Each structure stands twice: as C-alpha cells, then as structure tokens.
Amino acid sequence: MASTCIQIIEGNPHLRSLLSWHLQQAGYRVNQSADIMRAKETFQTVQPNLVIMETELSDGNGLELCQWLQQRGRPLIMILSAKSGEPDVVAGLQAGADDYLKKPFGMQEFLARVEALTRRNRKITAPVSLTYGDLNIDLVQRRVRFKEQFIDLTPQEFSLIYVLTQAEGSPLSRADLLRRAWPDAIDNPRTVDTHVLSLRKKIEVDPRQPSVIQTVRNVGYRLNIERLDSHSGPQPVSVGAVNAINAVG
C-alpha cells in the first residue's frame, strides 16, 4: 500500500478533503484536483495507480475525462456520482471505470472498495526507476543518482527533474514547469529559475556552463537528453509499471 498513489478529482472541496484525509490515514499517498484542467496536469505528472473521480465537474464532462485517462495511462478508475440510475452506472463503466460508487456513501464502504481495487491489480505495488544515461530516478524512494552518486534533492527539485525527463528533451516554459512540477502551487513562474539554479549546482560539472539542464532562450528549460545519452542511451529501466510517483507541490 505504501507505494500506491491515488488521485482524487472532486469539485466539492469538503468531500475532497475528507476523502483525502481518510485515504492518507489508511496509508495511501494522495493528490487532489478540483476540475478537469488541473486533473489532466496532475495526472501527467503523478501517474497515479488509482483515480477516484466525480463525473459532474465544473469545466467539462467527467465521462470524457475518464476516457482520456484510459487512453493515456490505463489507471484503475472509481467513479463517485449522485446519479444512481442503471443507465448512468452503465455509461460510467463503459467509459472505462472499474467501479461506480453512488453518493451518498459510507466511508467504510468507500475504503473497502478502494482496498479491493488496489488489491485486485498487482501492478500498483511495483517499484519503478527510470534511467537516462548517467541519470537514474527512483520513483518509489524519490531519490536521484547521477554518475553513480546519490544527489540530495528537495521535493520540489525532484518533481522538477522528473517533469524535465518526461519532456524527453523538448523545452518547457517556466509556466509549464510550474504547473506540471507543482500543480497545486500558486506562485511566480520565476520561482522555477531558483529551483533550476539549485538543481544545476547539484548535478552539473560546471553550473555556470550547464550542459544537462539547458536554458532555451525565450522559452524556458530542457533536459539535454543527448548529453545524458552520450554513453548509455536514454532507456527506461522498469521494475514495474511507471505509476509510483507522488508529486509534491
């Protein structure tokens, strides 16, 4: 259970917080989203094992989001909905949901269903690491090894370097990095510069002339995959499914 990451997509802030608290008390790691836009950003960063979602969201159709999730990561999906008619349940399951829980519901039943889903799918407990040349990212322990040396990173720095690797060498703007690395943060995009500078001091041979995390003029930053690839090549080394990261914003 310790490596199980759950994303809650729920427009009601009170219910969202309540579910998150109970799941955390049960030992799960939880990320929250209030609408479809934030949900997609968080999903791409976190790659959760289980998505618990409402279908009636402020900025779109939850069933369409359910289909979108299935196309990109195939996580387990539990739908929470006040719509209790048989056609609604069927529509949710056909959209890709693995379970459909009608509101209102008891917390014990909710937690039992979550446990049953996570127990049913063995892939959710598999640890994962990613390797790009000299850079190794342990998604379970949230540790980074560069040139065989473990690097002491803050949670923000870890999320930042993970997002840069996911872009596979493409440049990302400061605003994109801010949204993807710390989706729940409200901050100045220039804060990204501070974290990049700190990260460079830890992994660059010469931080004044960075070769790993490059500045792309008028755009933002990119991870120099070619530089990392110079010896071993960018190859994901998977000990399981890539879905164990918990983004910290």
Automatic annotation (TrEMBL):
**Per the record, what is one GO cellular component?**
protein-DNA complex
A single MF term (Gene Ontology): transcription cis-regulatory region binding
Question: Looking at the record's lineage, which domain of life comes first?
Answer: Bacteria
Which positions fall inside the Response regulatory domain?
5-118
One GO biological process this protein is involved in is:
regulation of DNA-templated transcription
Q: Which InterPro entries match?
A: CheY-like_superfamily (IPR011006), OmpR/PhoB-type_DNA-bd (IPR001867), Sig_transdc_resp-reg_C-effctor (IPR016032), Sig_transdc_resp-reg_receiver (IPR001789), WalR-like (IPR039420), WH-like_DNA-bd_sf (IPR036388)
Positions of the OmpR/PhoB-type domain: 127-225
Q: Which UniProt keywords apply?
A: DNA-binding
According to the entry, DNA is bound by residues in 127-225
Xref: Pfam families: Response_reg, Trans_reg_C
Query: Which PANTHER family does this chain map to?
Result: OMPR SUBFAMILY, REGULATOR OF RPOS
Q: What is this protein called?
A: Response regulator transcription factor
